[in-house]
Amino acid sequence: MEHWELFKPGGLRFVWADELFPPGTDSFLLSAFPRLRPGLRVLDLGCGTGLLSLLLLQRQRELAVTGLELSPEAAALAKRAAAKNGLTDRLFFHQGDLRDRNALPAEPFDLAVCNPPYFPPSSGPPPKGEARRTARTEESCTLEEACRAAA
What is the pTM of this model? Predict the structure, then answer.
């Protein structure tokens, strides 16, 4: 089931789905770290349904943000969120694997952001569901691979 939420009254809307990784505190905290200024070109690696990208645009509307997401379902929801918020001129989502250099846009970026996987695949019980395993563990992508893609 899909859920559409507002960041604040009159603010942007984000979407999440029960079968995908739900929004967590991490994205909200991460969005407060970068120094943003108008015109920055931002790359969001492993963007999921676009929550971190939208949070950055909520702070600074004059960004150009490109998200790359492995899950076709999450990437499709992210594209719908960009359209629903009227941001298709500055918020772009691509489905692909960040470990594949050809999946990344060839354009230069000023800032790369990522809410990375935190746990090695064998540390503790695996999260339930493929989307949660992919988002939380290094099963599909290691922190090193995410950093390499950002570089």
Answer: 0.89
Nearest Cα to 142, choosing from 111, 121, 112, 113?
121
- Concatenating the DSSP letter of every residue in 69-96 gives ES-HHHHHHHHHHHHHTT-TTTEEEEES
> Collapsing DSSP states into helix, strand and coil, what is residue 70?
coil
Residue 85: Cβ within 10 Å count: 18
d(Cα 122, Cα 86) in Å, to the nearest integer?
42
- Residues 97-145 have pLDDT tens digits of 999 989 988 889 999 999 887 677 777 676 677 766 666 667 778 888 9
Closest Cα partner for 135 from 28, 11, 19, 32?
Answer: 19
pLDDT in tens, 28-77: 999 999 999 999 999 999 999 999 999 999 999 999 999 999 999 999 99
The two three-digit tokens of residue 128, written as one number:
């339930």
Question: What is the Cα–Cα distance from 88 to 110, expressed in whole angstroms?
Answer: 19
